[in-house]
Amino acid sequence: MTPSSLLHRTTRSGAAHRSAWIHVIQAAAALAAGMGVGRFVYTPILPLMHAQVGLSAGSGADLATANYVGYLAGALAGIFLPRLMRSSAVLRGSLLVLTVTLAAMPLTHTTALWLALRLCAGVASALIFVIAVGSLLGRLRDHPAHLPGWAFGGVGAGIALSGLLVLLLRSVADWQAAWWASAALAALFAAASWNLRPEPAPLTTASPVREQAAAPRTHRWFTALFASYTLEGIGYIIAGTFLVAAIEQSSPGWIGSGAWVLVGAAAIPSCPLWARSARRWSRPDLLLAALVVQAIGIALPALVGGVAAALISALLFGATFLGVSTIALATGAHLQFPRSVALLTAGYSVGQILGPLVVAPLLHHGYHQALVLAAAVVLASAIAAAVLRLGFPHRMPAPSPSAAAD
Question: Are residues 183 and 158 in contact, defined by beta-carbon separation less than 8 angstroms?
């Protein structure tokens, strides 16, 4: 190889590396807007709405449920209308809708309108998520696995920055300013992700009959995985919605918002770290460990109380909730079960809808009982993950081209 050809290859490799990182940053910004801000900023703002608007605990749970119903609708649209996942117009439209719904929350005091706004925000969040994730998996297929992990860290960045924003505003402004500031933050993330290229169109069409024939029989393990991931959807979302309000019941107000900032900060590096751990431990073992750690983190503020427990809870929850999703979806792909990502996402979304509904009767007595129930559900998810470990097929035959296309 001549020096000139070596220089050309090195330059081309460096350009491809820079392009990949630009793509990661754009996808991270989209996930920060759609999930970190659009979906989870409600958690630190909820106590302000309780105190300043008189929003009841039951109505707060209803607003959360409306958002999760919208998320399920958007996720199903992405599943059954795959062209949506490859549309820049849908991505940009969803970013705009999300920002508008955040900015519109302070313009009314009517619960019905709040429900409608959070429903629309949920649809937009889901579409942003499926487009960004599809883009990552499609365009970074041949790059190191840690790159998509850092993009998922955008969710944590959105949580941390929006939580910090609410924390700074709560002493000098009201709940309305918190929503408007969050809308401005979402707009900045939207601008950073505006030129994200969606997933490219597939080159070939898979045959469902051939795909099912080629796939190994993994129903037993996928059933355990599906049960575990659905239960995780129920348990994690209870904490993801009410953790700040629960902490503020027994700690100074700034501790709750500060803990939520810590949740986001811990989530940023969690996905690449869990992905790296998969080189040494099996995915079922990692899933079991992450769920047990998460259950402990969720239960701490309810069983122990105090500032230290609140901060440890935030750290453990932030370090696991994105990691669980990463591990579970990767496990489904490893099992080569047809449409595993779609099925797991649907189960997880249904679980998120059920979570606030299940704990609604407990909220009349505060949020601590809700967190205990959430921890119990996550432990049930861990039990299902333990079943997944029994005889798990760690080595699978190489998927056929049709299976890979799924």
Answer: no
First to last CA, the chain: 39
- Tell whether the model's pLDDT for residue 208 goes beyond 50: no
Average pLDDT in the chain = 84
Are 241 and 42 in contact by the 8 Å Cβ rule? The answer is: yes
Q: What is the CA radius of gyration of the chain?
A: 21
Question: Under a CB-based contact definition with an 8 Å cutoff, are residues 174 and 57 in contact?
Answer: no
- Nearest CA to 376 among 218, 177, 238, 224? 238
Q: What per-residue string of b and e applies to 156-165 under the rule 16 or more CB within 10 Å gives b?
A: bbbbbbbbbb
Residue 294 half-sphere exposure toward CB, CA atoms < 13 A: 37
Residue 282 gets which letter from DSSP? -
pLDDT digits (tens, 9 = 90+) for 170-187: 888 899 999 999 999 999
Residues 6+ apart with CB under 8 A from 85: 78, 130, 131, 134, 198, 199
Element (H, E) at 230: helix 219-248
Listing DSSP states for 22-88 in one string gives: HHHHHHHHHHIIIIIITTTTHHHHHHHHHHHH---HHHHHHHHHHHHHHHHHHHHHHHH-GGGGG-H
pLDDT tens, position by position, 122-146? 999 989 988 887 787 666 666 666 6
User: Are 264 and 36 a contacting pair, CB within 8 Å?
Assistant: yes
Hey, what's the torsion of the CAs at 38, 20, 75, 219, to 10 degrees?
-130
Share of the chain above pLDDT 70, in %: 85
Q: Alpha-carbon torsion 314, 261, 377, 62, what sign?
A: positive
- Report how far residue 162's alpha carbon sits from residue 172's, in angstroms, rounded to the nearest whole number: 16
Question: In the chain, how long is the greatest CA-to-CA distance?
Answer: 75
DSSP 203: S
Six-digit token string for 362:
């407990």
What would the pLDDT profile of 227-282 be if each residue is shown by its tens digit? 999 999 999 999 988 888 888 877 766 788 888 899 999 999 998 888 888 778 88
Short-list 202, 210, 215, 207, CA closest to 398? 215
